[in-house]
Each structure stands twice: as C-alpha cells, then as structure tokens.
Hints:
The chain has 13 helices and twelve strands. By secondary structure, the protein is of the alpha+beta class.
Amino acid sequence: MQSGRDRGGSRWGSLRAGRLLQEGAPGASVLRLCVRLVRRPVLPAVRLWRRNMQLRVVAATLLMSLAVVLALGFVVIAQVSKGLLDAKEEAAQSQAAGGFAVAQEKANTPATVDGPDAADNKVGLDASTWMNSLVKQLASGGQTAFEVVALGAGTGEQVLPGTQGVKGARASGNVDPTASVPVKLRRAVNHSAGTFKTFSEIRYTAGAGEKAPEPALVVGKRLTDINGDPYDLYYLFPLSQEEESLNLVKSTIATAGLFVVVLLSAIAWLVVRQIVTPVRMAAGIAERLSAGRLQERMKVTGEDDIARLGEAFNKMAQNLQNKIQQLEDLSRMQRRFVSDVSHELRTPLTTVRMAADVIHDARVDFDPITARSAELLAGQLDRFESLLSDLLEISRFDAGAAALEAEPIDLRDVVRRVIDGAEPLAEHKGSRIRVLGDTQPVIAEADARRVERVLRNLVVNAVEHGEGRDVVVRLASAGGAVAVAVRDYGVGLKPGEATRVFNRFWRADPARARTTGGTGLGLSIAVEDARLHGGWLQAWGEPGGGSQFRLTLPRTADEPLRGSPIPLEPEDSRANRARAAAEAAGSAVERQQPADAGDRSPIPPRPAVASVQSVPADPTALPGSGARVVARPAEQAPQEERTDADADADGR
Length: 652
C-alpha cells in the first residue's frame, strides 16, 4: 500500500504541475496558441450567429426540413425495398417450386426406349449425364431470369481453395456453384427436408469474362436422381433489376428532398426577412434616437402588425422628443434664471458689502452684542459672495461655456500653493499636511487655475473632516496619466456615500457646521473641472477609517485616460491591512514548517505586497459605473482597485 506521505506528495506535485502550466510553462503557451488559432476564425461566425436572427431562423428551418426529408426518405426506401424483395421472393418461390416439381417428375418417370422424349429417356444414360441434361433444360426456361445449380449430396462444408468443389457440382450460365451457394444454406438443405432460401451473391467463373458478382436470392431443395440418390438443386434469382429500381427511387427521393430543403429555406428566408427588416430599421432608428437625433422616424407602409408597431414607435419617439424638448427648455430657463439672478445680485451685494465693511471696521466702538453681529454679518456676506461665484461657475458649466486654458504645468507647484493657503486652517485644526511623491516633476497639460481650485477644495475638506489627524497628499505619474490623491484619517464615508459626495449641496453629516464657510458646490465644480480636462475625480472612504479623493488627469490634453497611477483605495485601509497581516502570518507559518512539509501543502504562498510608487497605470480603473471594487492582477497592484462613479455631484 502507498503511504499517505507519498500520496500527499503526488497530489502536491500534480498541483505544482498544474500551477506551472498556468504560470507560463511551455505547454501553457502552446495551449494558448492553439486556443487562439481556433478562436480566431470561430469568433466572427459566433458573433454573426448571435447577432443575426434571420440566419438563425433559416438555419433552424434548414436543419429541421433536412431531418424531416431524411426520415421520410429512409421510411420510403425501406418500404419500397421491402415491397420489391417480397414480390421477388414470392415469384422466386413459385418459379423454384415448379422447377423442383419438374426435376423430381423427370427423375421418377419410367424409362422408355424411343419416342418424342428420347432426349429425356433414362435408358442408356448414367446419373451424371442425366443431371447435366436436367440443369440445361431447367435453365433454358429462365432466359437469364434465373440460373440453376445442382450439387451432389454432401456435408455442406466449405471446400478448400483449388479443389473442384462438392462432387457432382453443375451450374448454368458460367456460375461458380460452390462460391454462389452459401455453406449455411447447403447445410440446411442437406440436413432437413423442405425448401430453403437465403440472400447471397452470384459469382461467375473465368469463362464469363470480367462479369462482376451480383446480388441474388437462392432457393434450394433436396431431390433424388434417376438412381434414387439424393442431390441438391438450387435456383439463383438475380436481384439486379430490383437494385436498379431501388437506386432509382433513392436518387429520386434525394433530388426531391434537396429541392424541398432549398425551397423551405428560401421560403423561411423570405418570411423572416419581411419581419426582421422592420425590426432592424427600428433598432437603427432607436440607436440614432439615443445618439440625440430625435427627428428620426420609421417608414410605415400597410396596416398589418408591423405597421402598427411602426406607428407606435413613431408616436413614442414624438412624445419622447416633445418631453426632452420641454425638459431642455425648462433646464435652459433654470440656467438662465440662476445666471441672471447671480448677476443681478452682484450690485446689491456690492452695496451691502461696502456698508458691512464700514460697520465691521467700526465694531470696536460698539457694544459686544452689536460687534458680534457685525462680525457675523461680514462672515455671512463672504459666504454669500462665494456662493454667488460658485453659482456663476456652475451656470457656465451647465451652459457649456466653460473654457479650458491648458498649458504644461508642474503639479508640485500647484500643490505647494494649495498647502500654503491651507496651513492656517490645518494649524487651527491641529493637523499636519504631508506631501509624498514630490521628488520628481509631475508635468501635465492643464489649466493651473482650475486644478488649483480642485486641489484646494480637496485639501480644505480633508483638513476640516480629518479630526485633527494628518492629511497626506500624494503625487504620481505613469504612462499617459498623472494623479494627485488627498488622504485623511477622519470620519470617512459610509457605504454608498462615495457616489453621492459629488452631488450639489450634499453633506455627509447634515448637522455638521461649515466652519470654513463652504457653499456645498465645491466638489460639484471640482468634478466638472476634472471632466473639462478629460480626467477623473473619484472618492473612496470607510466609516472611521478616513477617505481619499483622487484626481487623475491625462498627461496631454487630447490623450484618453486608461488608468490611474495611484490606486483609489489606499494601502493603509483596513481591508489592505488585514490582507497584509494574513499574508504575513501565512508566510511566517510557512517558514516555520519543516522542509518536507511544503510538499504536502496544497496551497502555494501568495506574492508579497508591492510598493505604491511602483504600481503602473491601472487600465481597469474606469469611472462612471459606481462600482467600488475592480480586480487587478497581483503582479500589477498590491491590492484591489476601487473606483466610484464620476457623477455630477458636489463635495462634503
């Protein structure tokens, strides 16, 4: 018996072999090449099969009609073959019975000396001569309809090659008697009384030339000759005419079946085309409607169901166009109203600002309550002025009037200016702002004013919500993308809030005061600035574990983004810390195991976690879906990449 250790080793060896095959063994590359070569010509056909309903219907009709024609053909051929063979057997048995009766009658006829039947007289004739005369006489009445074979009585065993066959073998028409009469039939005739029949082949001797064997029905019976000795008489009925008739029936059925299959396929193609063509037209028009061409309509002809479908589709498109037009008019009116109100409020706001500044400068002469009111008035006016500026900026984005003034900039300079402006607030909150990844230039074509506004909003929010802990600003560049991530360790975000944090006037905590005078439109404007650059602004957070906002911009203005050089979920998140701890524990346990224990372990060690700076651009970190977890290969990233919808939204 094999030991458990040996069995475990063999299992571990097979697992290692399978893993080597997956990790790049020579067999794996050959297998992948074969799969690729097979899939390359198959994929277009599969795609065509899945996309073309007309092809599927015609193919199904063709297969079903072919199956019906084949089944019908087999049934008809079987019935015709059975009818031909039954008729042939009946006629052969009747003919053979008459011949057997004539042969036995001639053997039993008394001998005569002379007369008209002198040729049949048995006087002066031996049995051999009489049998030759009998075979010729019986075969002369067939006129190629049958052949006659006479065999001497014997055991019926197959003779050896080169011998003369069974003693006394005689046949008509150059028929090979021993090869044409099956051994099994001769045994039945030799050992039993009565008439026996079987199907066989008529084989001819060299005297018949190159005449090929032909199928035949053999009927045999034991008789006695003029001396009373037994012999076997066989009638061989060729089946050539029946075979020709059956071949004619087969060719006729095949031709008719092929014609029927082609006809049914053509009918199915025409019928399905009448149905599929309007559906394809509707699909094309629906695609153009979704692309914004709301004036597209279907062409309706007739009064059938397809016409009713076209009319309903056109009505739906008309109603949809009217509704969208109404919404666009309403949205345009709202944007104009916001823009007009924002502009109109600037004049009274300027007047109120001047009066508030005078009151605020003279507050030292007021009593404490009036002085505090002057300070509150100045603070709220500052916030009101910021709100008006943000509303004007939002109205520009809504109207599509925002312009991008892109030029090559170093994001490190922008980050330094933002941090310098946020230092007083950080000192007030007891936080410290740290910068990582600023040792190398981070160059991108961008609008410095808009990028600075985005980063200022992110850093100020991180300081405000950081609960006095450090704020980390990380810069990185890889491939055609640059990124800036702002990480805080404050209250964080609850599940689902990362997709709503960019909504206008949204707050993670409605009861929380805006100590810095925020308007609630900062992140909404920031995400519009990111989109104007062709970039992404995404958020990640966990309750009590802080949050991270990542701004990803293309290195050049017209280059599309395929990934971000910074993972959205930081490596110090709870999930990554737990994963790293589990991996470290597993590595420690593996190091403590004896040398032969690894051969018994079915679980291979996991790769170590790589540094964040060495992570290449992530081609799967695409925004807009709202999904937070996007898996990446282990050799490319130390953890799972999480992305959030790049929605039209505002910040905290």
